[in-house]
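Quick start: read one record
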Amino acid sequence: MSVPLPADAAPICSARGCRGSAQWALRWNNPRLHTADRRKTWLACTDHRASLGDFLGARGFLREVTPLAGSPTLDL
């Protein structure tokens, strides 16, 4: 069972075992389960952005990858 993070805690990567700071939002859906406009989100650190994206992309689930608001990767 996971322990919820405090509301002011920095978001962490969704990759199993990673505790890195999330900098990317991978938005996806499973078209067999979700309506076309529904998006689920996995967070990714720079190291896991590609592997998480590849996993979702291979299944046809990945819809978009965007910088996470407030992350240093967000271009101003």
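The radius of gyration is 13 Å.
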